Amino acid sequence: MNIIKHITTLVSAGRHPVSGEPRHCHNDSLAMTIGLDMAKSISAKHHVLHAGNPDNKALSEYLALGAGQIDVIPISDDTDVVDCLATQLNHADLILTGSRAESGEDSSLLPYLLAEKIGIPLVVNALAIKVKANTIEVLQFLPKGKRRHVTVKLPAIIAIHPLAPASLKFSYARQISGAIKTLLVPYTSTSTSVHKTQWQTLASIRKPIKLKAPENKSGHDRMMSAISSESKGGAVVNNGNSVEKAQVILGYLREHRLINF
What we know:
Strand content: 15-25%
Structural class: alpha/beta
CATH architecture of the domain at 6-182: 3-Layer(aba) Sandwich
Shape: elongated
CATH superfamily of the domain at 6-182: HUPs
CATH topology of the domain at 6-182: Rossmann fold
CATH class of the domain at 6-182: Alpha Beta
Number of helices: 7
Oligomer: single chain
Distance between the termini: 73 Å
Number of strands: 11
Radius of gyration: 24 Å
Order of helices and strands: EEEHEHEHEHEEEEHEHH
Helix content: 25-40%
């Protein structure tokens, strides 16, 4: 017997990191693709839900990526999105979402706040989902190449990791044939009680390249360094004045050819 009848994927309006133009959020698109594949394999219903402006150009790209219809909760910028979504997710057995949006406050707290509001379990950094008898098994991403299997009872919220192995397929035919439906749900503004910070979008600053001594290691040694913690060597100089300590640093840089003078 199929324990999952309804799957809902939450999508947000993304923003291109260079041009700033609206686009689909890549992480949410991975979650939607995984949800569509699951719904097809277990004969469950799949819904795509967005809270925001129904006229946002980014929503049409989700149609091109496979969403037959997108249900939109029309809200303003000063409305609590958690309360809006919680009232629409009572029927969902499984809720999928990305780990972080690409515009707005981008705090990545939405899955946590929503799970607390509804009172259901949450699993983050999911790579794959497998349906079992009365539960689902989630393959969870861990640092340094490690993985972990987590068994979760339904209903639950699963936040998909950006490295999830899902293939996005864009189709213009689906984009023009899909539909964006505005839900007639009345929500009032909360601007009178909560002061909203006005955020500004700025261009990202390229991080400086750190000086690093070249390492002559075999492939096996490099792999072990990536998955295990080890000492990076070096020396701690406590004695001497500032000139002597500077000479030690200068000698290290010259030894590893990080400077040429």
